[in-house]
UniProtKB/TrEMBL annotation:
Extent of the signal sequence: 1-26
PANTHER family: CEROID-LIPOFUSCINOSIS NEURONAL PROTEIN 5 (PTHR15380:SF2), CEROID-LIPOFUSCINOSIS, NEURONAL 5 (PTHR15380)
GO biological process: aerobic respiration; lysosome organization; oxygen metabolic process; swimming behavior
Designated name of the protein: Bis(monoacylglycero)phosphate synthase CLN5
Entry's Gene Ontology molecular function annotations: hydrolase activity, acting on glycosyl bonds; palmitoyl-(protein) hydrolase activity
UniProt similarity note: Belongs to the CLN5 family.
Cited function: Catalyzes the synthesis of bis(monoacylglycero)phosphate (BMP) via transacylation of 2 molecules of lysophosphatidylglycerol (LPG). BMP also known as lysobisphosphatidic acid plays a key role in the formation of intraluminal vesicles and in maintaining intracellular cholesterol homeostasis. Can use only LPG as the exclusive lysophospholipid acyl donor for base exchange and displays BMP synthase activity towards various LPGs (LPG 14:0, LPG 16:0, LPG 18:0, LPG 18:1) with a higher preference for longer chain lengths.
Keywords recorded for this protein, A-Z: Glycoprotein, Signal
Organism whose genome encodes this protein: Cyprinus carpio carpio
Amino acid sequence: MNCLVCFTLAALHCWIVGSVVSSVRGQQVWPVPYKRLDRRPDVDPYCQALYPFCPSGDPDGRIPVMSDSDNISVFRLQTPVWEFRFGDMLGKFHIMHDAIGFGSARMGRNFTMEWYELFQLGNCTFPHERAGVSAPFWCNQGAACFYEGIDDLHWKQNGTLEKIGEISGEMFNEMARWVQEDNKTGVYYETWTVKSDPGPNATTWFDSYDCSQFVHRTYKTLLDMGAELSSRTPTYYTKIYLYSGTPLYLGDDSIFHQSSMKDLATDIKKFYHSFRSHQSIVEMIESLLEAFEKMVLEKTFYFYYNSVYWKLPMKYPYIKIIFEEIPLP
Ligand SMILES: *[C@@H]1O[C@H](CO)[C@@H](O)[C@H](O)[C@H]1NC(C)=O
Ligand SMILES: *[C@@H]1O[C@H](CO)[C@@H](O)[C@H](O)[C@H]1NC(C)=O
Ligand SMILES: *[C@@H]1O[C@H](CO)[C@@H](O)[C@H](O)[C@H]1NC(C)=O
Ligand SMILES: *[C@@H]1O[C@H](CO)[C@@H](O)[C@H](O)[C@H]1NC(C)=O
Ligand SMILES: *[C@@H]1O[C@H](CO)[C@@H](O)[C@H](O)[C@H]1NC(C)=O
Ligand SMILES: *[C@@H]1O[C@H](CO)[C@@H](O)[C@H](O)[C@H]1NC(C)=O
């Protein structure tokens, strides 16, 4: 099931991500804009998915063309991926997965659209050590998956299946073109949202890029086209936060190839070494909590974003997993 593999996170600024310039006269702009590529790079064969990505989607990612005058219902879909307690430390985690459903009145068919990791959350959060490769190796692509059907029971049970509006077939087709483009240019999954503190005036250093961000971007795209969407119930999303002082830019993979950077390279590798490979969400969360202990002790997190490394001077409360309300755009 697709949803088992997706750990969703949301961010408030998702729709501006990618549209802001990264620096104004050399001054760093925060949050660091998520970098878009011209096209999706091929995945290295080293990255092997335990569960195939988008098994019931079109192999070429095609989205059916609707008749312009069709009336398409839009559904907000959300389901718990996992609910569990880890000791008494951080209470109960609600890890939710978000998606969007579409129902064509004319065709009498419905569809589900979601965005998630090609190789699961663990692989998007921590890199691998590969023999003969000096830099940490990441299998961190995420992508959109569009497939026929809405599994009502799956979303309704303990989750949400709510109709939030209707759009024309013409609007749907325009959205589909946007999805294809978005899917080609935004290719790396980003697990963490990094902020200066938990307060309301905090600076966001980095925004996550994940399933619920995709859902938000899609809503925003539809609203910009003139769609009217509204939810009768509050919309909650899971977010994983890191808290740090001003991030320090370190560099790209060349860190691991220069003798002058040997100590830094060793430090980064040591940092990631302690996180074992993850087969399940539970193991993943356990590692996050190990990361927590490490951060309290060492107050350093080597953060990977836009394929470059940053050093985060970590601050109390270091890390939080929050299930918080974020209204529709
Ligand atoms: C994570 O990536 C590794 C390396 O390719 C792979 O062996 C493993 O199956 C991946 N994990 C999942 C859950 O897909
Ligand atoms: C998005 O990209 C992935 C990876 O190339 C592909 O498998 C998928 O079909 C694409 N999805 C859409 C909706 O284009
Ligand atoms: C989607 O289509 C299936 C099959 O026709 C139907 O059982 C289900 O109720 C539909 N779901 C929604 C949300 O329209
Ligand atoms: C929904 O929640 C109930 C009670 O917590 C649980 O027994 C059931 O397995 C859950 N269903 C799904 C599909 O997760
Ligand atoms: C879709 O159909 C409903 C009635 O079923 C109607 O109220 C609504 O205005 C239609 N929406 C569009 C976008 O055509
Ligand atoms: C946040 O900023 C506003 C406006 O500058 C200020 O009035 C408020 O006291 C600040 N809140 C906190 C918790 O610092």
